[in-house]
Write a structure and sequence with these properties.
The protein is α+β, with helices and mostly antiparallel strands and 242 residues long. It has helices at 22-33, 63-67, 103-111, 134-139, 178-189, 214-218, 222-228, 232-235; strands at 10-16, 38-40, 49-56, 71-79, 81-83, 92-95, 115-119, 128-129, 132-133, 149-162, 165-172, 193-203, 206-207. The strands form three sheets. Strands 1, 2, 3, 4, 7, 10, 11, 12 and 13 form a nine-stranded mixed beta sheet that branches. Strand 2 (38-40) and strand 3 form a beta hairpin.
C-alpha cells in the first residue's frame, strides 16, 4: 500500500483493457497512486485496447501538447454489417452480401482514404452540440447535424484479408474516428462495414511496448512506479517544463 503523502510526477503509459472507459482508468490510477492530480492525453472507446497516455502530477501540464500528436492503431473491420455506433458494440442496422474482392481491391480502397480530408463525426460520440453530448441525442433517437472535421490519414494499410474481415494499420491525426473510417470503407465497397476491434499502438513517440497494465501497476512498489514513469522532458522534449 502506497503512503498517502507520496507524490508522483511524469507520464505513465497504460495498456488499457477492453470494457474500460478512459475515465475508469483515471479512477483506478487515483486509487493505486493515492493521488487526485491525474489526467490523460486522449481517450479510447471502451471497446478499444492499447495505449493510454496518463499524466501524473505536474505532467498534467502537458495535456494539450500530448493530445495533439498523431496516433497509430491496428484493428479489424468486418464487412457486410452496418451498426448504429459504427463498431461491434452497436445494434446492426443493415446487412448486405460482401462482393468478391481481391487483396488488391481492398488495398486500393484503403489507399483512397490517404491524405487530407474532412470527416463527419459519428452520432455516438462525446462531442457536444448546444451543450449536449451527441451520444445522448443518439440514444434518444435524434439525428443531429454535425460539422465535418479536418483530419489527415498518413498510412492505411492492409495486414490481413479473409473476407468478410480485414486487419489494418492506420496512422492519423488526432480527432480521427477510426470506426468512421471503417464505416466509410464499407460505404465505398457497397456492402457496409463496422469496426470489430481496435488497439492503439502509439501516440507520437510514445509506444504501447513501454506500457504497463493496471494489474502490473497495482503490484508495484513506489520505487518501481517511479522507474516506469516517463519524465516530462522526455515525453515532450520540445515543451518548456517547469
Amino acid at each position: 500500500m502506497l503512503a498517502p503523502t507520496k507524490e508522483f510526477d511524469g507520464v505513465l503509459l497504460i495498456d488499457k483493457p477492453g470494457a474500460h472507459t478512459s475515465h475508469d482508468v483515471v479512477a483506478r490510477l487515483r486509487g493505486i497512486l493515492k493521488m487526485k492530480r491525474i489526467g490523460h492525453a486522449g481517450t479510447l472507446d471502451p471497446m478499444a485496447t492499447g495505449l493510454l497516455v496518463m499524466l501524473v502530477g505536474k505532467a498534467t501540464k502537458l495535456s494539450q501538447y500530448l493530445m495533439s500528436v498523431e496516433k497509430e492503431y491496428t484493428g479489424t473491420i468486418e464487412l457486410g454489417k452496418v451498426t448504429n455506433t459504427q463498431d461491434a458494440e452497436g445494434e446492426v442496422l443493415s446487412s448486405a452480401p460482401v462482393p468478391v474482392l481481391t487483396e488488391a481491391d481492398v488495398c486500393k480502397a484503403l489507399a483512397g482514404f490517404l491524405g487530407d480530408q474532412y470527416q463527419i463525426p459519428p452520432m455516438f460520440s462525446a462531442i457536444k452540440i448546444a451543450g449536449k453530448p451527441l451520444y445522448k441525442s443518439a440514444r434518444e433517437g435524434e439525428e443531429v447535424e454535425r460539422e465535418p472535421r479536418f483530419i489527415r490519414v498518413m498510412n492505411y494499410e492492409l495486414t490481413r484479408w479473409e473476407s468478410p474481415e480485414l486487419d489494418f494499420r492506420v496512422l492519423c491525426t488526432k480527432g480521427t474516428y477510426v470506426r468512421t473510417l471503417a464505416h466509410d470503407l464499407g460505404q465505398r465497397l457497397g456492402c457496409g462495414a463496422h469496426l470489430k476491434a481496435l488497439r492503439r499502438i502509439s501516440s507520437g513517440t510514445l509506444n504501447v511496448a513501454r506500457a504497463v497494465t493496471l494489474e502490473q501497476l497495482q503490484k508495484m512498489t513506489p520505487t518501481e512506479i517511479d522507474q516506469v514513469l516517463i519524465p516530462a522532458y522526455e515525453a515532450a522534449p520540445s515543451v518548456a517544463f517547469g
